[in-house]
Amino acid sequence: xxxxPDSARRDPKEFRYPGDCLSSGWIRxxxxxxxxxxxxxxxxxxxxxxxLARYKAxxxxxxxxxxxxxxxxxxxxxxxxxxxxxxxxxxxxxYKTVEGGPVLWVDSLCINQADDxxxxxQVQMMGDIYARCEQVIVYLGDHTKSYSDPQHYxxxxxxxxxxxxxxRPRKT
Length: 172
Fold this sequence. Notes:
By secondary structure, the protein is an alpha/beta fold.
């Protein structure tokens, strides 16, 4: 029997989210662990109060939920979209000099998407989550054009430029 790539993939609902339940005012952040370009993506997952958290927020196009790649999130294999895996790989390269790796808030990793109550609560906090972050990083995907500022557009091992646009949040 022949299985298409989509039918061979497991349903993301089968995965148990590795984070603990969140109380009001609390969020999760990840630490993107260092690694070489080709090594699998690994992230630690932490819970912290929003008012005390120090992190960068990643904004990106999710892409198809049917095209996924595995990462390690809190020592659990966790499916992410191809776009997110690419963004994390580029961020890991960009922040390779940060000891321990950068601390990030990424909606699809830091919110339990299978828990409707949590997702609703966290979505209501997103304005504050973005306003309180140290920096918003916008990932626009892989592109073949080269750009004038290599700090914001790191190159992958394939030679393709990646748009990483750091944006400073407004101070309130």
